[in-house]
Input
Amino acid sequence: MRAALIRRLQHRMLMKHENTVAFLKSRKLHTINRTIWKSQLPTSNASITTIQRRKLSVTNNSKKPRILITGAIGQIGTELVTYLRDRYDNKSIIASDVKMPSGDNALLEKGPFVYMDVTDYSQIARIVVEYRINCVIHLAALISAVGEKNPQLAMKVNNLGTENVLEVARVNELKVYVPSTIAAFGPSTPRVNTPNMCVMRPTTVYGITKVYNELLGEYYCRRYGVDFRSLRYPGIISNKAMPGGGTTDYAVEIYHEAIKNKSYNCFLKDDTMLPMMYMPDCLKATCMMLEADSSKLKSRVYNVTAISFTPKQVYDSIKKYIPDMKIEYKPDFRQAIADSWPKSIDDTEARNDWDWKPEYDLDFMTKDMLDALRKKYIV
Ligand SMILES: NC(=O)c1ccc[n+]([C@@H]2O[C@H](COP(=O)([O-])OP(=O)(O)OC[C@H]3O[C@@H](n4cnc5c(N)ncnc54)[C@H](O)[C@@H]3O)[C@@H](O)[C@H]2O)c1
Output
């Protein structure tokens, strides 16, 4: 009886001791964790810069680029994939989208093409690991006009997609390029020569998501040292893939209609001035920003532009080559979007920091567009 009592007492003491040890261990672990956590927290600008430099030197090493491109069959992706495959090599550029490329199958044939939905973290993480990716060019997004038709989906794809890409980049120390847009500006932004840093209060869901993307990318760069880079593109004009539902789409459609029908119904007013850029300049700017020496980048997000023009001016430019071209102006809901955007952009900082300079003006672009589309439509 007495022996049993002693055994029970010993057992209780042992349990108490083990609990105390476990408690002390967990406190110690907690303290260690807190110390690590605290040491990672930027406490001043100086420590932010230290973390940033440490990680950037890892991601900016001389490793051969292995680039994952999201939203690769969109207007920009279609041409950027080919451009980068020519610049590096076919196998190192992994194109991805949620849709199959239609028509020209160069994207499928010349290099890897995978299904990847950017709203699913694990899909991105898997492709990054399996293809040994060290850079993501994140193009997948719902752009201005389609975004206004489905704001909930725009928030999901644009916000969650970028959050996922940045998280995968943080975990795997990847470089990340996410284009922004002039739609990130709003009606209270200075509309002429809009500077790199100014009031940004967009009124479209697309613009709101892009401001979030910019700020989140800068946060990941500051907080975790992710080598995040972004350019605010103006309206991009190209002759391969059609644009994906933006407000500057008229400036592409007008050339197609000029060749096909010699007439165009424009959804913006004749005097709506917007900043634009021809695709070869867009590809050049993207590559320059991607390859720029990190130490030269005073900012992680830059304005870039090439030309500003109105529908009337692009019509006049086309008439130099197709004199009997006709145009009618029937503004729709996109007019209000265009009216909230800058008329022209100041990209002095990009010019100063990494030598950005566009090559195409309006007439040079018009001639090139018409030549390319003639070959496409008139065999
Ligand atoms: N084209 C322009 O004029 C312009 C101007 C400024 C900024 N940008 C930016 O450049 C980027 C590319 O634009 P774009 O014009 O090529 O767009 P786009 O609309 O032509 O292409 C977007 C692509 O994203 C894909 N996509 C949609 N949801 C997806 C998902 N959940 N997962 C994976 N892919 C998905 C679509 O299938 C499509 O191929 C966008 O971030 C856009 O904001 C474009």
